[in-house]
Design brief:
Strand content: 5-15%
Distance between the termini: 39 Å
CATH topology of one domain: Arc Repressor Mutant, subunit A
Structural class: mainly alpha
Radius of gyration: 20 Å
Order of helices and strands: HHHEHHEEH
Length: 145
Amino acid sequence: MLAESSIFSMFKHYLDTFVAYRPSEVLLLTKTDLLKLFELDNAILLNYLEYISNSTLTSKSKIAILSLDSIREKISGYLLHEYKMNGSQIITLPFSKKEWAEFINVSRTSLSRELRYMQQEGIISFQKRTIEMKDLDKLEKILSL
């Protein structure tokens, strides 16, 4: 979906750019059309609301992680967020370390260095995209300092 958060907004314009990397078709729904669709099928309404809610929560989580000061705090914040979402101390990153570094707004080199330090301290262990949180208490303490 594109501009899904703006359709019910009080703002009249949505300023953004979208690029299609291959030939595409765009289905444009007006607010009136979307409301009619919601009336016809409540499942569509529920799926739409779930999508908007998930997008909002993801954005808020990202803002919270980006607002942390140090790389170690950003790593800890991300890992603890994933732990709370999935209930597992072992996570598989959904992206490369380069993309993770971009996500938390740090350099790839700095991210890798901090991950190695945290592994040496026994806080985490990692191999490629899999990270195990060995010491949740230490991760929590990093965020509370």
